[in-house]
Specification:
Layout (H helix, E strand, L loop, with lengths): L1 H13 L21 H25 L2 H6 L4 H25 L16 H23 L5 H25 L15 H9 L22 E4 L2 E4 L8 E6 L2 E6 L13 E8 L12 E10 L16
Antiparallel strand pairs: 1-2, 3-4, 3-5, 5-6
The structure holds 2-acetamido-2-deoxy-beta-D-glucopyranose (3 copies).
């Protein structure tokens, strides 16, 4: 099960190589330029994606398909409940935005069977949680903050259920979920959005879709790799640190647990890393850990 989850991660985060680049153009975004309408449309962009993800998979895989994948009958039932939740999130955010609401695009997901779907579900829910945590501090209106918090905790329940009950892996990564900023989250979402499929009326979100990043066997790969003043930025829980990249993409990362994220930046100082200097990613670093491992807060520091 872990092997298939890891494989799905690699597929999911390598998919930007296959799916052509997304809907927006590069812009310099500072936190102050992001208003609540933009944040709600960003959330709605993710919810449209999740809604399509569950709706289409359930349409494709019936009870017999889940059964022959080795899942008990209740697994598909719970996924159906999750699908209802995502549809409700779309309706609530669309209602709050009214005429300003972005519409759904067309999506493509690299699952091939209920197992790879469940593995990808755990990743998508993880990214969803990280997106809401990362956006929380930018939300101005307290009413929206309550709604976003209510969605966030529900997505976290989805993630924990899929990861542990279904995929038989760890339900969490550690004491703190990882906040991920707008553009890195958008970069993940964009790789599942079919090129050119969003209605023109949507307009572009003011976020950057960074080039794809892969990490395997201690090496990163991305377009523009030189190893000159390039750093892997590692995010887990509330920790961020940077690690220099060699000319061949080699990088020495500390041990992490569960799901951590990495990007590549030209900035060495972890505090100063962000949209202005990120040049690729994110990618997921997945390190499953068993029930008997200690799982403290991460304490890694920049190299
Ligand atoms: C982006 O905007 C910030 C704040 O105005 C500025 O400090 C930074 O230099 C800009 N970056 C680029 C790449 O234009
Ligand atoms: C895909 O996106 C790229 C970049 O925005 C664009 O140049 C290209 O024409 C698009 N291709 C299709 C088939 O829409
Ligand atoms: C990193 O940047 C922060 C914010 O500017 C600064 O306070 C800190 O001293 C810098 N750290 C190093 C090691 O240069």
């Amino acid at each position: 099960m872990r092997t298939s989850a890891a494989a799905a991660l690699a597929i999911a985060f390598g998919a930007a190589n296959v799916v052509a680049s997304p809907v927006t153009k590069r812009q310099n975004t500072t936190a102050s330029s992001i208003d609540d309408t933009t944040i709600l449309n960003y959330a709605l962009t993710l919810e449209h994606l999740e809604n399509a993800f569950y709706r289409d998979a359930l349409a494709q895989f019936d009870a017999a398909a889940f059964e022959s994948a080795g899942f008990p009958a209740w697994v598909r039932g719970r996924f159906s409940q999750i699908a209802e939740h995502e549809a409700s999130h779309v309706a609530v955010l669309s209602g709050a935005l009214g005429d300003a609401a972005v519409q759904a695009c067309e999506y493509t997901f690299p699952y091939t069977d209920p197992k790879s779907f469940a593995a990808l579900s755990a990743v998508i829910e993880n990214v969803g949680v990280s997106a809401y945590v990362g956006a929380a501090a930018s939300i101005m209106d307290k009413t929206y903050l309550t709604v976003a918090g209510s969605i966030l905790t529900t997505e976290a329940r989805h993630q924990a259920w899929v990861s542990s009950a279904v995929n038989q892996a760890e339900p969490w990564s550690g004491p703190y979920d990882t906040p991920v900023a707008f553009s890195p989250v958008y970069s993940v979402a964009a790789q599942f959005i079919k090129n050119g499929s969003c209605p023109a009326s949507n307009g572009a979100l003011p976020f950057t879709a960074f080039p794809a990043l892969t990490y395997m066997d201690g090496k990163v790969a991305f377009e523009g790799l030189s190893g000159q003043n390039q750093y892997v930025v590692l995010y887990q829980g509330l920790n961020i640190a940077t690690y220099p990249i060699g000319a061949d993409g080699s990088v020495s990362l500390p041990e992490t647990q569960g799901i951590a994220y990495i990007t590549v930046s030209t900035e060495k100082n972890a505090t100063l890393t962000g949209d202005d200097n990120i040049i690729a990613g994110p990618a997921v670093v997945a390190n499953p850990f068993d029930a008997y491992a200690s799982n403290p807060a991460p304490t890694f520091t920049s190299a």
